[in-house]
Amino acid sequence: MLGAMGAVSAQPSAVAAFGTTALSPGGKPLRIGVIGSGRIGGTVGGLWVKAGHPVLFSSRHPEQLKSLVEGLGPNARAGSVAQAIEFGEVLFVAVPFGALPELGKQYGQAMAGKIVLDATNAYTHRDGAAAEEALVDGVAITSARYLQGTRLVRAFNFTSASDFATQHHRKPQRVAVPIAGDDREALAVASQLVLAAGFEPVVIGSLKAADSFAPGGPLFRQVGSADELRRRAQALGR
Fold first, then answer.
1. Within-domain flag for 14
2. How many domains does the chain have?
3. pLDDT tens per residue across span 23-62
4. Where is the Pyrroline-5-carboxylate reductase catalytic N-terminal domain (predicted)?
């Protein structure tokens, strides 16, 4: 049982009902700061660049991102984590889960109030104490604790970077990306960014329900259409 899951397809009409879009006033694309520009961050961030959003990719060694940003064109830049946070109207976090405590400690105040799409996953062999905490409390709730004060949405963590690289804009039906969160406006913005990347957003439910599409959850690695994902999610809710 996922409890209060109530899966809803966040198609453009549903997003409009939330009262916001992924564009800033005046119809300008959103500035996105990517924190952690490895396989997931680089892949999904690259899709946003191609959709017209300016993206600042960051890492501890931004000089190593030169080839990534040069290949994506003028809408892509590289910088430090602090620069990405300052730049981004929306932040995309794709670091190892074990890095979240330090991220929150160092940058929590700067991130507070921002919409954050959280693509992290906890693995005990890699992430140590943070992963052990996630096993007890749930990965989504643990993420929210480390990134306290942000408007957190879990997204882009349900499958591999290779799937995001090869399955975007799939026809005739787009691949569904499950998302979950407690902030309706943040969910709406996240939904639009999922669409911009070439996928179909499906709101699974509250932030707690996000554990259903994390590693070990029944919706993890379930790559398919929005209708297929809804059916799986609804079956879990019975």
1. no
2. 1
3. 544 457 999 999 999 999 999 999 999 999 999 999 889 9
4. 31-121
